[in-house]
Design brief:
This protein is an alpha+beta fold. It has three domains: 11-229, Histidine kinase-like ATPase, C-terminal domain (Heat Shock Protein 90); 235-396, Ribosomal Protein S5, domain 2; 417-544 and 588-616, 3-Layer(aba) Sandwich (Rossmann fold), CATH 3.40.50.670. It has 21 helices and 24 strands. The strands form five sheets. Strands 1, 2, 3, 4, 5, 6, 7, 8 and 9 form a nine-stranded mixed beta sheet that branches. Strands 10-11-14-12-13 form a five-stranded mixed beta sheet, with helices on both faces. A hairpin with a 2-residue loop joins strand 4 (151-158) and strand 5 (161-162). The protein is flat and about 70 Å long. It starts with 10 loop residues before the first helix and ends in a 9-residue tail after the last helix. Bound molecules: 3-[3-(1H-pyrrolo[2,3-b]pyridin-5-yl)phenyl]propanoic acid. 3-[3-(1H-pyrrolo[2,3-b]pyridin-5-yl)phenyl]propanoic acid is lined by residues 58-59, 62, 85, 87-91, 116-117, 177.
Length: 653
């Protein structure tokens, strides 16, 4: 290993003499650079953020192994990212098989993660798990500093290739790993791409909840923002956060940790007076959107334990009375986190736990600990069971109402709503539907569209806030029924994405506070009733222009104030301010002010328009945001909508 001062280029870069091992490495990382999407999903914003998660995951692994208590993520002004932890430090000694320092193996070998530590939990190998070498391959440069054994080590890479040997750069106390990387602009080519503080902050908050006591700090040097997350309550704090402003039925949160052979299990839950269920499950810190064995065990235990308690305490009126799974989950906020040694991820998005042995472990642990909680907290037990009984009665009433509504509205009869101007093509993958605020804008959209593949559904005024309504009321709402029939894939348990009649569902509202409100209501509806449409990337937000800047025959459409000023400058040919005679600026207050042709050219023409795809980075955080936003408190909603009225982009949840 080179000592300080002996910095020299490594052989393989100076004379191109590769060893067999190095060729494999280069081939591997070359593959990553050739097809980055295969490794990080995409090279858009998602992929860019994925780089950070990948590096952070390594530090999280170190925390799960019990050696790291603090992680710091810093967004630098120049676009680089620093991830710093106080773990043991990536090994620097010579790897017995590869003959190079451990850190070099980690930085240059795909899936090197598990090579060192066999008996600890790992995020790596799971959903992310492509390893830090992928980040290295996709970085213009990457520097790693490791502190351990009294020394500080340093190494630099350029586009995945070793630029300097690992060298000692000084003495240092303690231990830790410090990675700085600059995402490669040759890979992340989308204009305007940059890190979003909130997106990263949401995932880091989630990781802090999932790793009790771990301190995670996010600093944004571009604007000085900083957030620290550390939760001594672990999942109990998480439940409180997700519950938001919903009124709890019992103050004390059900909480336990259990260590079993098959898995380590941590659970927190609390009931509130709402009607929806908010269960989120994680395996090795990865959100298991599609559920799996652990969720099955949890559901079975909940139903069984609550029924057992009610029966033993003679709460049921009739002998054969019982509560269904849906009944005991109404108004429930629950987070389950399991750590499994060798997780098997299955399902369409690889977020379903396949390890069947975990089912029994979770079921037994929940039976035991929830049983104890109910015995020790009879008042809470009573509230929970009364709530479940009321859910049971309401469900029966709702079932009847739904049957009635279904028949009446012909939700499933294939009869399309009268207000819908459908497209002529029938292949859903080519078709889009615009959900348009107001009849007048709807009229312009109908005239301006390309009727072969674009359908228009005008929506009248505010749609119902589904956050606090039971299903019978939701289905009683005319605008909602029209949307469900037009889209064609049903809702909730009847939802079948294959039946969607359009693969692009585009929300088009005015660029004002009312428009933002309607957009939020629609997103809430999709998130709660047709979540897969969001997860599959079918939901989009249209971006109508805010200004038209024109002079004579020249005209430009501006989507922000900066753009408007830019166009004014351009039209005044660089003349000083005040020399802007003849330039007209029209501010669009609503879609209705555009004629059909303008609407087409600015907002609907696929060649010219900008539409934002709605994504969910963290389902738990989105759940919490919707609860806070759309619950009973009006104030958080008003604030959020006002803050986001202009910045449609921030609505990506
Ligand atoms: C393998 C073994 C050891 C530590 C690590 C990996 C490690 C990797 C990363 C990546 C970011 N931060 C990290 N911290 C630790 C332990 C080697 C030992 O001391 O026995």
């Amino acid at each position: 290993m080179a000592k300080k001062g002996e910095k020299k280029k490594s052989d393989e870069q100076t004379n191109g003499d590769y060893t067999a091992g190095q060729i494999t490495v280069l081939k591997g990382l070359e593959a990553v650079r050739k097809r980055p999407g295969m490794y990080i999903g995409s090279t858009s914003a998602r992929g860019l953020h994925h780089l950070v998660y990948e590096v952070v995951d390594n530090s999280i692994d170190e925390a799960m192994a019990g050696f790291c208590t603090e992680i710091r993520v810093t967004l630098r002004e120049d676009g680089a990212v620093v991830v710093d932890d106080n773990g043991r430090g990536i090994p620097v000694d010579i790897h017995p098989e590869e003959g190079i320092p451990g850190v070099e193996v980690a930085m240059t070998t795909l899936h090197a993660g598990g090579k060192f530590d066999k008996d600890s939990y790992k995020v790596s190998g799971g959903l992310h798990g492509v390893g830090v070498s992928v980040v290295n391959a996709l970085s213009e440069w990457l520097e790693v500093e490791i502190t351990r054994d009294g020394q500080r080590y340093h190494q630099r890479y350029v586009r995945g290739i070793k630029d300097t040997d690992l060298e000692i750069i000084g003495k240092a106390k303690g231990s830790g790993t410090h990675v700085t990387f600059m995402p490669d602009s040759e890979i992340f080519t989308e204009p305007g791409l940059s890190y979003n503080f909130e997106t990263l902050n949401n995932r880091l908050r989630e990781l802090a909840f999932l790793n009790k006591g771990l301190k995670i700090v996010l600093t944004d040097e571009r604007d000085g923002a900083e957030e620290t997350h550390q939760y001594e309550g672990g999942l109990a704090s998480f439940v409180k956060h997700v519950r938001g402003s919903r009124q709890p039925l019992h103050e004390k949160i059900v909480y336990f940790e259990a260590s079993r052979e098959e898995a380590d299990i941590e659970l927190a839950m609390q009931y509130d007076d709402g009607f929806s269920e908010h269960t989120h499950t994680f395996v090795n810190n990865i959100n298991t959107h599609e559920g799996g064995a652990h969720l099955t065990g949890l559901k079975a235990a909940l139903t069984r334990t609550i029924n057992d308690y009610a029966r033993r305490n003679n709460i049921f009126k009739k002998d054969d009375e019982s509560l269904s799974g849906d009944d005991v989950r109404e108004g429930l906020t629950c987070i389950l986190s399991v750590k499994v040694m060798e997780p098997q991820f299955e399902g369409q998005t690889k977020t379903k736990l396949g390890n069947s042995e975990v089912r029994g472990a979770v079921e037994a642990a929940v039976n035991e600990h929830l049983g104890i909680f109910l015995e020790e907290n009879p008042k809470a037990a009573k509230s929970i069971i009364e709530k479940s009984l009321s859910a049971s009665r309401a469900r029966e009433a709702a079932r009847k109402a739904r049957d009635l509504v279904r028949k009446k509205s012909a939700l499933e009869s294939g009869v399309l709503p009268g207000k819908l101007a459908d497209c002529s093509i029938s292949d859903p993958s080519l078709c889009e539907i615009y959900l348009v605020e107001g009849d007048s804008a709807g009229g312009s959209a109908k005239q301006g569209r390309d009727r072969s593949f674009q359908a228009i559904l005008p929506l009248k005024g505010k749609i119902l806030n589904v956050e606090r309504a039971r299903i019978d009321k939701i289905l009683g709402n005319e605008e909602i029924r029209a949307m469900i029939t037009a889209i064609g894939c049903g809702i909730r348990e009847d939802f079948e994405i294959e039946k969607a009649r359009y693969h692009k569902i585009i929300i088009m509202t005015d660029a004002d506070v009312d428009g933002a409100h309607i957009r939020t209501l629609l997103l809430t509806f999709f998130f709660r009733q047709m979540r897969d449409l969001i997860e599959e990337g079918y939901i989009y937000i249209a971006q109508p222009p805010l200004y038209r800047v024109s002079k004579g025959k020249k005209e430009y459409y501006a989507y922000s104030e900066e753009e408007r000023d830019e166009f004014v400058k351009r039209l005044s040919n660089g003349k000083p301010e005040g020399e802007t005679r003849g330039i007209q600026i029209q501010r669009y207050k609503g879609l209705g002010e555009m004629n059909p042709d303008q609407l087409w050219r600015t907002t609907m023409d696929p060649e010219a328009r900008t539409i934002y795809q709605v994504t969910v980075d963290s389902a738990a955080e989105a759940d919490s945001i919707f609860s806070r936003l759309m619950g009973e408190d009006v104030e958080p909603r008003r604030k959020f909508i006002e803050a986001n009225a202009k910045y449609v982009k921030n609505l990506d949840i």
